[in-house]
From TrEMBL:
Part of the Sec protein translocase complex. Interacts with the SecYEG preprotein conducting channel. SecDF uses the proton motive force (PMF) to complete protein translocation after the ATP-dependent function of SecA. One of its GO terms (cellular component) is plasma membrane. This is Multifunctional fusion protein. It is found in: Cell membrane. InterPro entries: SecD, SecD/SecF_arch_bac, SecD/SecF_bac, SecD/SecF_CS, SecD_1st, SecD_SecF_C, SecD_SecF_C_bact, SecDF_P1_head. The gene is secF. It comes from Tenacibaculum holothuriorum.
Length: 994
C-alpha cells in the first residue's frame, strides 16, 4: 500500500480532532450533573417543575464562568455547551413540531375580510378538499373559485382582491391567473415573515441548538427544541400571533342586568336538557353552584335542577360602588366553551341594550385554582367593541418591550410606543381617566387597570399571577413582531426528559453490548487479523462520533441504530477482504500476494465499493424524504459508510502490512473456525423452484393477511394523538380503554401495554379534525379526567408532558393532523419507489445486464412484502409496538440497503466467475454462491448479534424498528441466495435465448 505515512498522519490527526470535539460533551455533562445534584438537594418532593427551576438557576450562575482550563485556552459553560454533541428529542426530551401558517387567513387578510359569496364558498371548498389532497391551499382555492365563479366575477374584483391595499399590484384588468401569481408572491412573503418572527422568538427562548426550517413552499415550518421541558410555554410561544390590542371595557355594574335577563332566557332554552343532566348536578360539590358563590339565589324563578346561564357562569354582582370592577364574571375552565356558545346565541344577544349592542366577551389569559382546589376558574371581561370590531389601538405601534418589575417587585412587561402609538395612547387614556382599559393579546385579556391619568409613550402589561417566564415570553413576542397569519401545530412529538434519560441509558447499554459481541466474534473467527479489524472498528466509532460532534449534528435513538448497523457493514468489509485473502492463501499464494489480492479492486474492493454505494443511495433518499429522528438515522448511516470504508480498507491494511513486514503468521482463522465453510459446493439453482414455492407461499399468506387483518398504521400515517402514560401500579389495558370511551368520544381509544405493565400507549382520533390551540388542551384534560382514578394525588399540571416525573404522567406525546398524515404517507411511498428505481439503475450501469437489476429489485420487493406480511400477522399478538409509520419506512429502506448490499457482493463474485466464460452455466453460478457463503453467513450473523442486542436491551421505543430490521436481515440473506440469484439466472438465460 502506498502513502502509508500520509494515511497514518491523517488517522492520528482525525482521531485527535474527534477526541477534542467529544471532550466538550464530556465537560458539559459534568457541569449538568452538578446542576442536577444541586437541584435534588434543594427540592425535597422530586417535583419536576421545581427541579428544572433549580437546574436552570445553577446553569445560569456558571454560564459565563470558566469551567474548563486546558492551559492554552479556557472555556465557560456557554462555550462548551455550544460545542457539545447535540442529542435528539428521544434522548434528551423536548418538542419537535411542524406548524402550518394559515394560507386561508392570509387570503382573507389580503381581501380585507371580503364577504363576497363566491370567495367564501371557494374557501370553504378548499378547506374540505385539503383534507385529502396533496395540492397547496392556493391551488385548491383557485380551482374552486374558477369553477364557482365562471365568468360572473374575477379575483381582481374590488370586493375581493381589487382593494386599495393591493391597487399597485392588482387592477381590474388582471386575469385570474395573473392575480393568482400575485397572491402566491404575497403568500410567500407572509410565510417568510412568519419564519423570521418564529426564529426571532426561538432564539430568545433559551434552548441550546434549536432548529427551525421551512418545508418547501407548503407554508409549513419545522421547529425542533431539544431539552425544552415547559411544553405549554413552547406551544404558546410558537402559536401566538402577537395581536396586541387596547380596548375600553364595560364594568360588572354595566353588564349585570343583561346577565340576569340572559339567565332567564338560557333557562328557557335549556329546559329540555335539564332532565338528562339532573344526576350530574346532584353530585356537585359545595362552592360550585351560583348560589354558593353569591350567597343568595341569583334567580328567584330558578327551579331545582333547572339549567340556566348561572349554572356555568358566575357573575360578579356589584351591590355598591366599592364592588365595581372590570371583571364581569367567572367560570370553570371546562365550561368556557359552553358559556361562549350560550352568550353567542342570537336570542341571548338580542337582550343586549343599544349601549351594549357591540359588546364582546373575552376570557382572561390565565386560570386560577378554585378555593377548594378541585377545579380551575377563569375570569370574563366585557369589551366595548364596535360595528367593525376595531380596537382603539393596535399592537403594531409597539417600538420596544421588555420584562420588568413593578413597585411591589411583581413581574410586568414594559412597553414603549412609537410616535403614532404615543398619540393614540395619550388620547385613549386622557378620555378614560377613572375608567378601565383592557390590554388584550391574541384575544385574551392580560390586564384591565383603572386609568388614573393621561399617559405618554410608556405603558405596561401586568397580571396578578404573571410569572417572570410569562412576562419574558410576552416581551419576546411583542418585540419579535406578530405573525402575518395564525400558525397552528399540525404535527408534534413531545418526549419528556425522564423518558429521554431512560432511552439514552438503555441505548448505551445495548451499544456497549453490541460492540463487545462483535469484537469477541471477530477474534474467535479470524484470530489476530480479527483483532486488527477490531481496532479499525473502534477507530471507526470514534470517527463517527467525532464527525457528529464537529458538525453539530443531532444524535437520535434511530441514529444510534444507524451507527450499530454501520458496525455490521464495517465488519462486512473486513470479512469480504479476509475471505478473499484466505482463498488466495488456499490457492498457494504467499501471505504478501494474498494480502495484495484481498485489498485490490479485482479482489474484495470492487464488491465493497458496490455494496456501500447501494446502501449510500438508500441513505441519501431516506435523508431527503425523512424528518426528525429518521433524518438522524440516515445521517449517521451515511457518515458511517464513509468512515467504515476508510477504516476497513486503510486502517486494517496498516496493521496487516505491519504484521507481514515483521514476518508474523496470519492464518486468518482460529482452531475453532479453520474448517468452517471449506470445500462447499451446494447446487443452489437446482433448489430454485422449491425456493419460488416457499417464497410465493409466504408472500401470499402475507398479502391475504394485509387484505383481511390490515396493518397497524401509526398516527403519523393516519392522524390522531398518541400518549405514552406511566402509572404507579400495573394497569389493565382493556379496563382503561373502557373508562376512556366516555371522555374521548364514541369510539374507544386504542390502549396497549407498552413495555412494562405500568405503561400504556393510548391512541385516539378524538377531535383531531378540529382546529384551535385550545383543542389539544381540551383532549389532554379529557384524558386526565378519564385516568384520574388511577393517578392518585397527581395534579393535572404534573400529569402533562414535560419536566421530569417521579410518578404518574405523560412520558411522551405525538399529534399528527390528517392533512399532514396523508402527506407523510405519500412521501414514504415515494421514498421506497425512488430507492428501488435508483438502485435498479445503478446495478444496471455497474453490471451492464438487465437481468442483474431484475434479480436485485425482485429480491428487494420480496423482502419488503415478507416484512410487511410478518407485521400484519403479528401486530396484534406481539408485546411491543408494530406500527407502520416513518420509523418503519426507515427500517424498510435499511432492509432494502442491506439486502442489496448482500446481493451485490454475490453478484460481483458471479460476474467474476462468469466473466471469461462463453456460457453462463448453473455450475459456475453455484460455485460463486458457494464461495461467498462463508462471508454471507458471517456478516449476517454479526449483524444479527448487533441487532438482537439493541432489540433486547435498547428500550421499548425502538423494539418495533429493530424487529423489522431483524426480520429484514434474515429474509434478505435468504433472498440473496434463493431469490435474487435464481431470478437473475433465469432472466439471463432468457436474454441469451432471445
Amino acid at each position: 500500500m502506498q502513502n502509508k505515512g500520509l494515511i497514518k498522519l491523517f488517522a492520528i490527526l482525525f482521531g485527535l480532532v474527534s477526541v477534542y470535539q467529544l471532550s466538550f460533551t464530556f465537560f458539559a455533562n459534568k457541569v449538568e450533573d452538578s446542576a442536577k445534584e444541586y437541584a435534588k438537594n434543594n427540592v425535597k418532593d422530586n417535583n419536576g417543575r421545581a427541579l428544572a427551576k433549580f437546574e436552570r438557576r445553577y446553569l445560569d450562575s456558571v454560564a459565563n464562568k470558566e469551567v474548563v482550563n486546558l492551559g492554552f485556552t479556557e472555556y465557560t459553560y456557554n462555550d462548551i455547551k455550544n460545542r457539545e454533541m447535540n442529542l435528539g428529542l428521544d434522548l434528551k426530551g423536548g418538542i419537535n413540531a411542524i406548524l402550518q401558517v394559515s394560507v386561508k387567513d392570509i387570503l382573507i387578510g389580503l381581501s380585507n375580510d371580503s364577504q363576497n359569496t363566491t370567495f367564501r364558498q371557494a374557501l370553504a371548498k378548499a378547506d374540505e378538499a385539503q383534507k385529502d389532497s396533496q395540492d397547496n391551499y392556493l391551488d385548491l382555492f383557485y380551482n374552486n373559485f374558477v369553477e364557482l365563479a365562471g365568468t360572473s366575477v374575477k379575483l381582481s374584483d374590488p370586493t375581493i382582491f381589487g382593494t386599495k391595499a393591493l391597487r399597485d399590484k392588482i387592477d381590474f384588468n388582471k386575469t385570474n391567473e395573473q392575480v393568482k401569481s400575485t397572491l402566491q408572491e404575497e403568500i410567500n412573503t407572509s410565510i417568510n415573515t412568519a419564519f423570521e418572527v418564529l426564529r426571532s422568538r426561538i432564539d430568545k427562548f433559551g434552548v441550546v441548538q434549536p432548529s427551525i426550517q421551512r418545508i418547501g413552499t407548503s407554508g409549513r415550518i419545522q421547529v425542533e427544541l431539544p431539552g425544552a421541558k415547559d411544553i405549554d410555554r413552547v406551544e404558546k410561544l410558537l402559536q401566538s400571533t402577537a395581536e396586541l390590542q387596547f380596548w375600553e371595557v364595560h364594568t360588572n355594574a354595566d353588564i349585570q342586568n343583561f346577565f340576569f335577563a340572559a339567565n332567564a332566557k338560557v333557562a328557557e332554552l335549556l329546559k329540555d336538557d335539564s332532565a338528562t343532566e339532573q344526576a350530574k348536578d346532584s353530585a356537585k360539590k359545595p362552592g360550585d353552584s351560583i348560589d354558593d358563590l353569591l350567597g343568595e339565589s341569583a334567580d328567584s324563578t330558578n327551579v331545582e335542577n333547572q339549567k340556566n346561564l348561572f349554572t356555568y357562569l358566575f357573575p360578579n354582582i356589584a351591590q355598591g360602588p366599592q364592588q365595581v370592577t372590570s371583571l364581569v364574571a367567572q367560570a370553570r375552565v371546562s365550561d368556557t366553551a359552553r358559556v361562549n356558545s350560550l352568550l353567542a346565541n342570537k336570542e341571548v344577544r338580542a337582550l343586549l341594550p343599544n349601549n351594549l349592542r357591540y359588546t364582546k366577551f373575552l376570557w382572561e389569559y390565565k386560570a386560577q385554582p378554585s378555593a377548594d382546589g378541585t377545579t380551575e376558574i377563569i375570569g370574563l371581561y366585557a369589551i366595548k367593541s364596535n360595528r367593525k370590531d376595531q380596537p382603539a389601538i393596535d399592537g403594531d405601534v409597539i417600538a420596544d418591550a421588555k420584562q420588568d418589575y413593578d413597585q411591589l417587585s411583581k413581574p410586568i412587561v414594559s412597553m414603549t410606543m412609537n410616535a403614532v402609538g404615543t398619540k393614540k395612547w395619550s388620547k385613549l387614556t386622557g378620555e378614560n381617566i377613572g375608567k378601565h382599559v383592557a390590554i388584550v393579546l391574541d384575544n385574551y385579556v392580560y390586564t384591565a387597570p383603572i386609568i388614573n391619568g393621561q399617559l405618554g409613550s410608556n405603558s405596561s402589561i401586568s397580571g396578578g399571577s404573571m410569572t417572570v417566564n410569562e412576562a419574558q415570553d410576552i416581551a419576546t413576542i411583542l418585540k419579535a413582531g406578530k405573525l402575518p397569519a395564525p400558525a397552528r401545530i399540525i404535527q408534534a412529538e413531545v418526549v419528556g426528559p425522564s423518558l429521554g434519560k431512560e432511552s439514552i441509558n438503555a441505548s448505551m447499554w445495548s451499544f456497549g453490548l453490541a460492540i463487545v459481541l462483535v469484537l469477541v466474534w471477530m477474534y474467535l473467527y479470524y484470530g489476530k487479523a480479527g483483532l486488527y479489524a477490531d481496532v479499525a472498528l473502534l477507530v471507526n466509532i470514534l470517527f463517527i462520533f467525532g464527525i457528529l460532534a464537529s458538525f453539530n449534528s443531532v444524535l437520535t435513538l434511530p441514529g444510534i441504530a444507524g451507527i450499530i448497523l454501520t458496525i455490521g457493514m464495517s465488519v462486512d468489509a473486513n470479512v469480504i477482504i479476509f475471505e478473499r485473502i484466505k482463498e488466495a492463501l488456499g490457492g498457494g499464494k504467499s501471505l504478501r500476494e494474498a494480502v495484495d489480492e484481498g485489498f485490490s479492486i479485482k479482489g474484495a474492493l470492487s464488491a465493497i465499493i458496490d455494496a456501500n454505494i447501494t446502501t449510500l443511495l438508500t441513505g441519501i433518499i431516506l435523508y431527503s424524504f425523512g424528518t426528525g429522528p429518521i433524518k438522524g438515522f440516515a445521517l449517521t448511516l451515511m457518515i458511517g459508510i464513509a468512515t467504515s470504508l476508510f477504516t476497513a480498507v486503510f486502517i486494517t491494511r496498516l496493521f496487516i502490512d505491519g504484521a507481514v513486514e515483521k514476518g508474523t503468521a496470519l492464518p486468518f482463522n482460529t482452531n475453532l473456525s479453520k474448517n468452517w465453510f471449506k470445500n462447499i459446493n451446494i447446487e443452489f439453482l437446482k433448489k430454485r423452484k422449491l425456493a419460488y414455492i416457499i417464497s410465493g407461499f409466504f408472500i401470499a399468506v402475507g398479502l391475504v393477511s394485509m387484505i383481511t387483518l390490515g396493518l397497524k398504521q401509526g398516527v403519523d400515517f393516519k392522524g390522531g394523538r398518541s400518549y405514552l402514560v406511566r402509572f404507579d401500579q400495573p394497569m389493565k389495558a382493556n379496563e382503561v380503554a373502557s373508562n376512556l370511551k366516555a371522555v374521548l368520544g364514541n369510539n374507544a381509544p386504542e390502549v396497549k401495554t407498552y413495555g412494562s405493565d405500568n405503561q400504556l400507549k393510548i391512541t385516539t382520533a378524538f377531535k383531531i379534525d378540529e382546529d384551535g390551540k385550545e383543542v389539544d388542551n381540551e383532549v389532554q384534560t379529557a384524558l386526565y379526567n378519564g385516568l384520574k382514578q388511577y393517578l392518585g394525588d397527581t395534579s393535572y399540571e404534573d400529569f402533562k408532558p414535560g419536566f421530569e416525573k417521579a410518578g404518574n404522567g405523560i412520558m411522551s406525546y405525538m399529534k399528527v393532523e390528517p392533512t399532514i398524515a396523508d402527506d407523510i404517507k405519500q412521501a414514504a411511498i415515494w421514498a421506497v419507489i425512488l430507492a428501488l428505481a435508483v438502485v435498479f439503475l445503478y446495478i444496471l450501469l455497474r453490471f451492464r445486464r438487465m437481468s442483474y437489476s431484475i434479480g436485485a429489485v425482485v429480491a428487494v420487493f420480496h423482502d419488503v412484502l415478507v416484512v410487511l406480511g410478518v407485521f400484519s400477522l403479528l401486530y396484534k399478538v406481539m408485546p411491543f409496538d408494530m406500527e407502520i409509520g416513518q420509523s418503519f419506512i426507515a427500517a424498510i429502506l435499511t432492509v432494502v440497503g442491506y439486502s442489496l448490499n448482500d446481493t451485490v457482493v454475490i453478484f460481483d463474485r458471479i460476474r467474476e466467475y462468469t466473466g471469461n466464460s462463453k456460457t453462463f452455466t448453473a455450475s459456475l453460478v453455484d460455485k460463486a454462491l458457494s464461495s461467498t457463503l462463508g462471508r454471507t453467513i458471517n456478516t449476517s450473523l454479526t449483524t444479527l448479534l448487533v441487532m438482537l442486542a439493541i432489540f433486547f436491551f435498547g428500550g421499548d421505543s425502538i423494539k418495533g424498528f429493530m424487529f423489522a430490521l431483524i426480520v429484514g436481515v434474515l429474509v434478505g440473506t435468504y433472498s440473496s441466495l434463493f431469490v435474487a440469484t435464481p431470478i437473475m439466472f433465469d432472466a439471463t438465460k432468457k436474454e441469451d435465448k432471445e
